[in-house]
Every structure is written in structure tokens, then in C-alpha cells.
Amino acid sequence: MEKIPLIIDTDPGVDDALALKIAFESPLLDIRMVCSVAGNVSIDRTTANALFLTKKYGGDIPVARGSGSPLSRAATDASSVHGASGIGNYVIPEHGYKLDSEDGVESIYSALRTVGKPATLLTLGPMTNIATLLSRHPDAKGLIERIYAMIASVDGTGNITEYAEFNAYCDPEALDAVVRSGIDVVFAPMHLGRDAKLSQKDIIEHGRGSEFGGMLAKIFEGYRDDAAGEGYVAMYDANAVEAIIRPELYEFVRCTAEVDTGEFPGRTFLRPNENGRYHYIDIKDVDRLAEAMLEDMFPR
Fold it and tell me: Would the pTM count as exceeding 0.90?
């Protein structure tokens, strides 16, 4: 089977770390590079986390430093959830891993041009890098097959404000630019993370005896997601990955997409419409998906 050429844009982030592990383990994906973006924590932290996680668990995949601030707004973060480092209480050990590029946007463009056919993008944070890419290099649109994005909400509700999902709120202008570009976007909206929450105990049990499992045990000591509840992890980002490698577990709903950049920044509406340009996903079977996430994170 021909692998899917994939570029990952991420802001690790606890649930990003889980999603990245699933992606790294998948035999269906040809991961060309990983790029950081400011979001859950600062760009220095997300870059350090992306570098370590990728080189440690993904192998020799290039890692680049992406955008450190939104297109036109002050930065915000979710360190109150993910911890000051972005990955709970875990302290990254000393290592010799090096970034492959300090200009993530140009690295994404270069990677797209070398694939030889349109590639898939997986975005797990704000859309700043992708909007900047399309502004600098309009021809990049033709090099992108589809974007799978953990971002937005279907009904105009939120988790950072009452009306905005976190990634959309961080850089609504970037999300709006990507939507207006006309690129095919598959949204993994906010409510899926809560529907697909996993028990921290189950994750640690499945990872028992592995280095990644040991890391997660330490991470969870400093992690609390009130949306998921005590002892659980809302698997927001993992849904975007699973939709690529296990599409049969989701319903793909054709929709229109609206992004507010004015009075309610980051407020989104994904309205079902058979003539819509985009899709959002819904989970068909929550229990089966939970099993799949654990299997894909820790393949036997």
C-alpha cells in the first residue's frame, strides 16, 4: 500500500504528544517533517517538545521551528492545563537532537515541493504557519491535497471562551485565511476530544514497560483537563490523526465553515451542507475508537 505523505504542524501539548505517537507508529504514513507553532505554550517550549518527541519516537524526521506569535494578535497559551513546559511534570532529559530548520514555513514549502504529488497536512494547533505559507507562496495551495485539523467547534461554543475553541481563538485570522483559500479541510472539532476521552490509567497500563509509557506517567502527574474530568485525557488531537489512518471510524459530514475575526474572535460554525466545501468528522463508535487509539499508540 502506498503511504500517505504527511506534514505535521503542532504545538505540544499533552494531547499533541499522544497524537504524535499514534502518527509515528502508523505504517500508513510517510511523515516528511514536523513543524512547531506557538499555542499550548510558547514557541520555545513547543519547539523543544516537538524536537524531543519527534527524534525520540519518530526517528530521523526533520523538525523545524515555526511561528512564535499569531498573525495580528497577542499570544495566549494553555499552560494552566498542560503545565509550564507543555508536557506536565515531565522534564526533557539532556540530548543531542538538533533542529533541521529555524524557518518552519519555508521548510513546509520545501517539503511540499519535494513530495512529487499533493501532500496531506495535519495541524494540531493554531493555523499561523499554514496561513503564512499561503501568503508567502500562493502556489503552495496546489501542493496540498487536504488538511486534517484539530480546530474549531461546530456550533459556536468554546473551551477557552464560551464561544471559541482554543486553537481557533489563538489565531482566528489565520484560520479564516486558510478557510478562505479554498483548500480541502477536514475539521476534527472540539466536542470530539471530550467524546473520545481516555482514562489516564488505561493509557499508562497499555504503555507499561515502554519508555513512552513511563514518560506519560510523569506527564500525567501535572496534567488536569477539567473538560475530560479527573483522571482522564480529552483526546482532541488524536481524532485528526485517526481520521487519516482509520477513516472508517468516523462519519465525514460535508459542511460550510465560518470564522469570526471580529466581535467574537475564533467563534466558528461548521454547518452541514451537502454542497459545502469542507468536512467535519463525527465519531461512529466511541468505545471502538478508544480501543483503536490505545492500539495505535502502543502497537503490539
Answer: yes
